[in-house]
UniProtKB/TrEMBL annotation:
Protein name: monodehydroascorbate reductase (NADH)
Lineage: Eukaryota, Viridiplantae, Streptophyta, Embryophyta, Tracheophyta
All residue ranges annotated as the Monodehydroascorbate reductase 3-like C-terminal domain in the record: 340-423
Broad EC category: oxidoreductase
Source organism, top-level taxon: Eukaryota
Keyword line: FAD, Flavoprotein, Membrane, NAD, Oxidoreductase, Redox-active center, Transmembrane, Transmembrane helix
Domain FAD/NAD(P)-binding: 7-320
NAD as UniProt keyword: yes
Entry GO MF terms: monodehydroascorbate reductase (NADH) activity
Native source species: Ficus carica (Common fig)
Transmembrane segments: 450-473
Matching SUPFAM superfamilies: FAD/NAD(P)-binding domain, FAD/NAD-linked reductases, dimerisation (C-terminal) domain
Length: 479
């Protein structure tokens, strides 16, 4: 038995939802599009699972966070898919893909064929067993990737009011879960091998701010070591976590956030893989021209940095999905995907955003004893990354804009002195008559010397030139 569609999206997560909306905006006909997902629910905003979903009071529940609410778009409920004539094949795992025949085989034995396939299979949580530790199947150990995991975590929190939780891993899942556990009045110990939390992104100075904040909420950190085993009780539950140095942490529950692995196994040997994901071009098209890949599973060219990257962030899932659909529906109109990497997190009353690349020299700015501070990264003489905690909407927009511009930075000390003001100056409205009016088009290309920031010329002039160039560049893009 089998069904045939023009377009099939394999995977029903964030990217799938945004792709579906884009298909409808671009005139997909009823019956042409199908989404196959092993999850039992229509696509939703996954970041909600470690935030609103875990709140003790008035927690977020579906349908409130179906895609695409995260981008202030329509909320796509199952009814919406029905009205649009989009087939949702839920609770269905695809077991194999045959790209020569253009077919997918589901676990239920159905063959679904396509003309164009979008792979949006995302990633899975890494398991402790992959690091030689047994015990993931104990009922008080949980991961957090999908709704099933989130429900398990909620049930565990309810079962152990005032109990002890050990969080394994200091990345964003660990940090967000730890915050939610504390809000649920659970005592939290975080264990991770790095010297500080969020080691892939945070500098020691930034990390120390968050760790101090967490400590003020009662979280205990055990750093530079790993879990070696679980002590299992007679009910098969974890009673304690044993660390490599032999110490024993009594625990009512364990939350594991030790990273993810893109879901590529169905495609190995059939598509070119890179950086652990499916390699695609600037149209999100894989090595097979009928197959596109988006979201966490896609390794795509990041023009701004001139290299292939695979990102694990929701904004990239949303935008890459839209871009792929646009490229499929209007191939002649679409330019290459030009993406500024963006990542955010919200914990307790804190909220930060990061844009670009955290490579090169770090320049911290702001008040690290207060609530608004940040950092710039300067690599090969250009500002390539910006981080801001506690910013306003305008301030976040400003750091996004300045990062995309990649201005040349010649005076690090001045950048440090200006701090957030540098980004704000650049993002301001176009400067008035004193700005150069004879800017050559070539100078407006990001990273060209027009942005050179000479200490002698003064920061204000540099910022006003850059602001003009930014405004001028935007004008060109828009019209
Ligand atoms: C708890 C949590 C919190 C997060 N918070 C943030 C945040 O604050 N900020 C941020 O930038 N990012 C955050 N992220 C990351 C963000 O959610 C992901 O980048 C995003 O979900 C990726 O979208 P995707 O569509 O590529 O993959 P996913 O959303 O993971 O969707 C993949 C889908 O494919 C399905 N699937 C996979 N294989 C098959 C198969 N063989 N057959 C059928 N279906 C299949 C899966 O079941 C799933 O439905 C968070 C992630 C998690 C888990």
């Amino acid at each position: 038995m089998g069904r045939a569609f023009v377009y099939v999206i394999l995977g029903g997560g964030v990217a799938a939802g945004y792709a579906a909306l884009e298909f409808t905006k671009r005139g997909v006909s009823h019956g042409e599009l199908c989404i196959i997902s092993e999850e039992p629910v229509a696509p939703y905003e996954r970041p909600a699972l470690s935030k609103g979903f875990l709140l003790p009071e008035d927690p977020s529940r579906l349908p409130s966070f179906h895609t695409c609410v995260g981008a202030n778009e329509e909320r796509l409920t199952p009814k919406w898919y029905k009205e649009q004539g989009i087939e949702l094949v839920l609770g269905t795992q695809v077991k194999s893909a045959d790209f020569r025949r253009k077919t997918l085989l589901t676990a239920a034995g159905e063959t679904i064929s396509y003309k164009i396939l979008i792979i949006a299979t995302g990633a899975r949580a890494l398991k402790l067993e992959e690091f030689g530790v047994k015990g993931s199947d104990a009922e008080n150990v949980c991961y957090l990737r999908d709704m099933g995991d989130a429900n398990t975590l909620v049930d565990l929190m309810k079962s152990f009011p005032g109990g002890n939780a050990v969080v394994i891993g200091g990345g964003y899942i660990g940090m967000e879960c730890a915050a939610s556990l504390v809000i649920n009045k659970i005592n939290v110990t975080m264990v991770f091998p790095e010297e500080h939390c969020m080691a892939r992104l945070f500098t020691p100075k930034i990390a120390s701010y968050y760790e101090d904040y967490y400590k003020s909420k009662g979280v205990r950190f055990i750093k530079g070591t790993v879990l070696s085993s679980f002590e299992i009780d007679s009910d098969g539950k974890v009673a304690a976590v044993i660390l490599k140095d032999g110490s024993r942490l009594p625990s009512d529950m364990v939350v594991v956030g030790i990273g993810i692995r893109p879901n590529t196994s169905l495609f190995e040997g059939q598509l070119t893989l890179e950086k652990g994901g499916i390699k695609v071009n600037g149209k999100m098209q894989s090595s097979n021209s009928s197959v596109y890949a988006v979201g966490d599973v896609a390794a795509f060219p990041v023009k701004l940095f001139g290299e292939i990257r695979r990102l694990e962030h929701v904004d990239s899932a949303r935008k890459s999905a839209r871009h792929a659909v646009a490229a499929i529906m209007e191939p002649n109109k679409m330019s290459e995907f030009d993406y500024l990497p963006f990542f955010y997190s919200r914990v307790f009353a804190l909220s930060w955003q990061f844009y670009g690349d955290n490579a090169g020299e770090v320049i911290h700015f702001g008040d690290f004893s207060g609530s608004t501070f940040g950092a710039y990264w300067v690599n090969k003489g250009h500002l390539v990354g910006s981080f801001l905690e506690g910013g306003t909407k305008d301030e976040y927009e400003a750091i996004a804009k300045v990062t995309r511009l990649k201005p040349a930075i010649e005076n690090i000390g001045e950048l440090e002195r200006q701090g957030l003001g540098f980004a704000l100056a650049i993002s301001q409205k176009p400067p008035q008559p004193t700005v150069p009016v004879n800017v050559r088009e070539a100078d407006l290309i990001v990273g060209k010397p027009i942005y050179a920031w000479h200490a002698t010329a003064g920061v204000a002039l540099a910022a006003s030139i850059a602001a003009f160039a930014y405004w001028y560049g935007r004008r060109r893009r828009r019209w």
